[in-house]
Structures are given as structure tokens and as C-alpha cells.
Design a protein that fits this description.
alpha/beta; TIM Barrel; Arc Repressor Mutant, subunit A; 3-stranded antiparallel sheet; 15 helices; 19% strand; globular; cytoplasm; chaperone; Heme chaperone HemW; metal ion binding; rSAM
Length: 405
Amino acid sequence: MGSALPIGDPAPADGLLPADLPVDAAAPFSVYLHVPFCRVRCGYCDFNTYTATELRGARQDQYADTLLREIGLARAVLDAAHGRRAASTVFFGGGTPTLLPPGDLARMLAGVRDAFGIAEGAEVTVEANPDTVTDAVVDELAAAGVTRLSVGMQSSVPHVLAALDRTHDPANVRTAVRAARRAGLDVSVDLIYGAPGESLEDWRSSVTTAVALEPDHISAYALIIEEGTKLARQIRRGEVPAPDDDLQADMYELADAALAEAGFDWYEVSNWARGERHRSRHNLAYWRGHDWWGFGPGAHSHIVGLRWWNVKHPAAYAQRLAAGTSPAAGRERPDAVARTLESVLLRTRIREGMPLVELDAAHRDAVAGLIADGLVSGADAVRGRIVLTVKGRLLADAVVRALTD
């Protein structure tokens, strides 16, 4: 049911921001709406999600109303800080947002529009399980203002889906993509590589199938084994093998080459798009350190360096909001060292890279060695930016250590 929340300072019951926080009402602002419900818990997942038997007092049919209370609180908090502004991106994530009726998602989006406004041309994304997408669902979402559907494909190979505990019908991925296209939405598909028993040819088949769907955007994430998950326990007991780092590296290189040949440009370590206008602007907001408010149980928020996170369980979340208090469980204001580490960690992951001038002299000197090792692009470094090569993307953590230790 999700990894543990961070340890931070107590969050005030009224949710108000510190008086000295330099909130800028002209800065970009994004909204994340967490829908924590799933029909089945996937064995690899440690997101803050719940099946019907785990809700213990929370109700899916009341969730939209509960979340709208947090939106009202957020409006008051940002008004008090003179920081309310229109959302440039909105993202429904989970969990499986499309387990809720599309009318509930539409009401939540309307709540964002009423509280903050939604900027002209904003990107509004809904994540979807392929089995929950129909023409009627997509039409209602599009009418509400959704512009983009992100389809959880993960793999096209049945035994790989089974290893991940994914229960959707692979044929429904194409159905979902077609429905989104008919409604005029942009389409992204998500893939995962490195599942137990997945071969390089299995992965090639999934990438080929994803490209054939002709989406605007493809995400491909290496399977990471998270403590506390079913898959971690299976590996610990020797029932299935752990991911092979060398095989995952081969899979990444295969995907990068195949996607480039198909006309997709990488713009973040795990993300490729057909041109700049199809990049996920919402995820770029995270990587660039913009402001965002995360709504829902366990959701995290960030305003000008201040971070906070909500209580995890939907029942506790609903109880706090019903009592008129903030659902925030804690918050922190990282110091300069932590902010620098985070900036390097996030900004080196994206294609635009990080300006060299933002590093101190000692760490700028380390860049020459990274170029010699083939991890950082020499041509981009000459132009004043740190941009990872393909090899560097595979060893991104090593690059971050070199630039921060």
C-alpha cells in the first residue's frame, strides 16, 4: 500500500504556508490528482493504492467529493500566500483513475478549474488501464477538458504481463488508443522492461507493438524491485529471478534505437515523444522544479522549495478533510545542499540538461572526466550544458554522484 512517508516537520492543521515563503504567482503551477484505487494489486507496485478489500471505511463513490474539499483548502492557502494561479498542467494518476466514473473525474477537473483556473492550452492527462477505456468514457473525459490519455500497456507478451500480475487484455490497448484518437486526444503508452522471464526478444516484440499503435509518446521504465512488494518476496524466496542489470541495459539500448528509428526523440531518461509538443509537460514540471499541488491520500506537493505530503490511507484522508483540517502528514524545507543534489538529480535526466554554470568550480572540473568516460555529451558541454549520452542515461546515478560528492 505504498512506501513509507518521509520523516519531516509537523504540518499545520490549517495547511498555511510559512509567512516567509517567497511564493510567485507568475511561476508555472501544476496539479496532480491521485486516485488510489485498483482492481488488483500488481506484484511489483509500491504506489499508494488500494483494492476494495483494503479501503477499511473509505468509499470510492465519495472520493471525488472528498478530494474537492482539499481543492477548496488549497485555494484558501494559496490565496493567503498571494500565490493562486491557473494550472498549466493537470494529471490524474494512481492507481487507476478510470476505475472512477468519468463524471467523477470531470467534477474533480471542474473543481480545479473553479478554484485556480486552467491555463489556455493546458495539458490535462488521465492514466488508464486498457480494460476500463471505452468510446463513451473517453468522449466524456474529452468533453470535460482532458487532452491526453496515458495507457498502461506495460508489455504485449502474455507471460510477461502475468509475471507483473497485470490482468488487462493486451488487445484492449489498441482499443483504448483508437478510442482516444477518435476523441481527439493525444496518446501515451507506458512500458516496463526487465520482468522475470522476459527475454530480449519479448521486449523487442513489446516495443514493436507499441510503435505500431502510433502513439504520440512512449514511456519505458526499468522494473525496480521495491521492498515490501509481492515480487520482492518472491525473489527473496528464490521463486523468480531478480532483474538482470546487463539485460536491462540491453533492453534500454534496444528501445532507444527502435524509438529513434520510428521518429521518437528522447527527452528524459525513460521518455520519448514525437516532437517537442508531445512531451509530457506535467512530468517536465517535476524535473524542472516547478510548483505543484498533489491532491489525494499520500500525494506530495512542492511550492518554492517547501515540500509536504498527505496522510496515506483514504479513510484517514477523508476524516481530516471532513473535520476541516489539512490532510498533510508532514512537511520539510530542504537546505541548500539538498536542493542542489535534487536539482542535479532531476535536471541531468532531461534532454535540455543542466547549465554548467550552476555547478561550483570543483564539480565543473569533474565534467571533463565524465565526457572522457562517454557519459556526458562533449558537444553539449561546449555549449554550456550537461547532457547525458545513451551510456550516461544507463549510469545516471554515477553521473549525479560525480557532480555532487
